[in-house]
Amino acid sequence: MARAVAAGQPEAAEPDKGCSLAGRTQSAAGVISERILAMRFLMLIWAESSAASGDQTDYDVWAAFDDRARAAGVFVNNGALQPAATDARLVRTTLSGHDLADAVERRPFTEGAAQIEAFYLMECPDIETAQHWANQLPTYGQIEVRPLIDFG
To answer: Looking at domain 38-85+111-147, which CATH architecture does it have?
Structure first.
């Protein structure tokens, strides 16, 4: 059943739909347009630097999570990082007075036992929804959830 949308008013969110990313507005001329209601959140996955990488079973669990996030419309991007001890580099910028020749330093960059091992970028309507998805990530580590600043 179609619902009427009052001129210039956002359409009400449908209950129990999970993460709703788009709303609809109708102009006085009757033109319906989509607008994004979601914010982007970066989820940094922290784990012990000594943690071993997973096997096929672990990969399958992560793939299933990705499928659920895509089906819900919250998935934007993700990636896993090589351990900081492998080939990480600290690069100082020219703005801070460093030329490239003296700006690059190779070393492990974590001061403690934990390091960032992966990230997710998700679109959710609010921080509570982002926290809900972070809580479902299949990791023994901790998840740092941070909203991205929208400069647009």
So the answer is: 2-Layer Sandwich (3.30)
Show me where the domains of the chain are located: 1-37, 38-85+111-147
Q: For each of the chain's 152 residues, which pLDDT tens digit applies?
A: 333 333 443 333 333 334 444 444 444 555 544 444 579 999 999 988 777 677 889 899 999 999 999 999 999 999 998 877 777 777 777 777 777 777 776 665 655 678 888 999 999 999 999 999 999 999 888 999 999 998 87
Question: What SS3 string covers the chain?
Answer: CCCCCCECCECCCCCCCCCCCEEEEECCCCCEEEEECCEEEEEEEEEECCCCCCCHHHHHHHHHHHHHHHHHCCEEEEEECCCHHHHCEEECCHHHCCCHHHHEEECCCCCCCEEEEEEEEEEECCHHHHHHHHHHCCCCCEEEEEECCCCC
Counting beta carbons within 10 angstroms of the beta carbon of residue 120, is it exposed (0 to 12), middle (13 to 18) or buried (19 or more)? buried
